[in-house]
Amino acid sequence: MARVIPLLVLICVAAISAWAWFRSAEPVVLPPEPTPPPPAASAPAPAAVEVPYVTGPATPDGIGKFFYGREIAKVMGHPAIGWLERTEREQEEAPSKAIAAIELAPDAVIADIGAGSGYYSFRMSEKVPRGKVVALDIQPEMLDFLRKKAAELKISNVEPHLGAIDDVKLPAASLDAALMVDAYHEFSHPQEMLASLHRALKPGGRIFLLEFRGEDPKVPIKPLHKMTEAQARLELEGAGFRFEGNLRPLPWQHLMVFERP
């Protein structure tokens, strides 16, 4: 019996120790799942900035006024209507491809800024049968030609409109889109024109900017009448527009798309 008691004591001590170990051991707790980061915010709308014009000696094709380092080109006047309406224009520039690439609702209102003879205006009118094309120019002679041509073609949804050198002279939020074909580089007041166009476009309205490719020396156009994509982005993004892309369907020109946020 004397031997049994120490054995029982030993067993009890072992049991108590085991119970105490399990009792004191803390349960394993897995670390919490990491909190996922919030979704990235969409790119903020570019803020318009005011850039001073710089003047200097004019080159033969320029006016001696510089914007973002680019000399502004001389305006092509109404005597050049024949060049705008030349029969080989389709072969050289493929305007039908540009028009096909421009997406518009049938009831959209689009302004053809620097419409000239209306070469694009009349062709664009077919895309907006329930809307209209505002054919804007600063030369009354161009608008007179437009009116006569509209009557000849019996097109009623092309509206000639006289703008100013620094203002499109259109109501706020009245446009779904704007088209500028080889004209923007000649604007003597590009900063003011872009600001007025920003006001005239509805939120989400787009600019379709066609310019001869300044990066390509094979394009047979005088340098000041061409623009690089980088230069166009610098100027339009500086005016508060968002670059959407360059469609690139044309042999000589950029077809760049910008949006009014």
TrEMBL record:
<dbReference type="GO" id="GO:0032259">
    <property type="term" value="P:methylation"/>
</dbReference>
<dbReference type="Pfam" id="PF13649">
    <property type="entry name" value="Methyltransf_25"/>
</dbReference>
<protein>
    <submittedName>
        <fullName>Class I SAM-dependent methyltransferase</fullName>
    </submittedName>
</protein>
<dbReference type="GO" id="GO:0008168">
    <property type="term" value="F:methyltransferase activity"/>
</dbReference>
<keyword id="KW-0489">Methyltransferase</keyword>
<dbReference type="InterPro" id="IPR029063">
    <property type="entry name" value="SAM-dependent_MTases_sf"/>
</dbReference>
<dbReference type="InterPro" id="IPR041698">
    <property type="entry name" value="Methyltransf_25"/>
</dbReference>
<keyword id="KW-0808">Transferase</keyword>
<feature type="domain" description="Methyltransferase">
    <location>
        <begin position="110"/>
        <end position="205"/>
    </location>
</feature>
